[in-house]
Design a protein that fits this description.
Layout: H1 10-33, H2 40-47, H3 51-57, H4 61-66, H5 69-81, H6 89-98, H7 106-116, H8 120-145, H9 151-175, H10 183-195
Helix pairs in contact: 1-2, 5-6, 5-8, 6-9, 8-9, 9-10
């Protein structure tokens, strides 16, 4: 789902509106035929735009589901940087993830999770996006940790970000089977499991 901000121009808002319409109609096709079986030509015909126009709004068919990587990286870094510097870094990462456009609607997040885990090409693209998210977040986390910069501090920061993103992936997978819990709740549960002692809660 595309994201509109207060700084967007009229052209940006128009582009976001078209992207949202394309996504809604494309998701209906994916639900009916499956992601892999749905062609770009079908999406273009259903949405009333040309194939060339479709690719101007979305770089690939996978991006219709997963969104724009550069935009997501900007959202993550801006949201993380806006968190209080004294806040626990894990909490800051969770709040940054909650700012992603795909996390804004519980139903949309569930649809994305269902599709990502039903298509090898989508799954592959999703992992590439997560690698891009890690690349932009690691320097921010390393700076937040406050240790002297070096190999050890970067390893620590990279490990924290990798674990946080793995928790997000686990939460998205679990979301497919949960109608009552949100992505944020499942993500928080996954992070708690990684950080706290294993075993049932009292």
């Amino acid at each position: 789902m595309s994201r509109v901000t207060g700084r967007d121009t009229a052209w940006d808002r128009s582009r976001h509106a078209v992207q949202q319409k394309v996504q809604e109609l494309a998701f209906a096709l994916f639900a009916e035929h499956g992601f892999d079986a749905t062609t770009v030509e079908q999406i273009a015909a259903e949405t009333g735009v040309s194939r060339a126009t479709l690719f101007r709004y979305f770089g690939t068919k996978e991006d219709i589901v997963l969104g724009d990587t550069a935009e997501q990286c900007a959202v993550l870094t801006t949201a993380f940087a806006a968190r209080p510097p004294e806040e626990d870094v894990w909490i800051s990462l969770q709040r940054a993830a909650e700012a992603l456009p795909s996390a804004q609607s519980p139903e949309h997040a569930r649809q994305v999770a269902m599709l990502v885990h039903s298509s090898a090409s989508l799954r592959s693209r999703y992992l590439v996006k997560m690698a891009a998210w890690q690349e932009v977040l690691v320097p921010l986390v390393e700076q937040r940790l406050g240790a002297q910069r070096g190999t050890r501090s970067r390893v620590r920061a990279a490990a924290i970000v990798a674990c946080s993103l793995a928790c997000l992936d686990v939460a998205a997978d679990a979301l497919r089977h949960s109608a009552e819990l949100t992505l944020d709740q499942l993500y928080g549960e996954a992070v708690s499991a990684v950080r706290g002692p294993a075993g049932p809660k009292s």
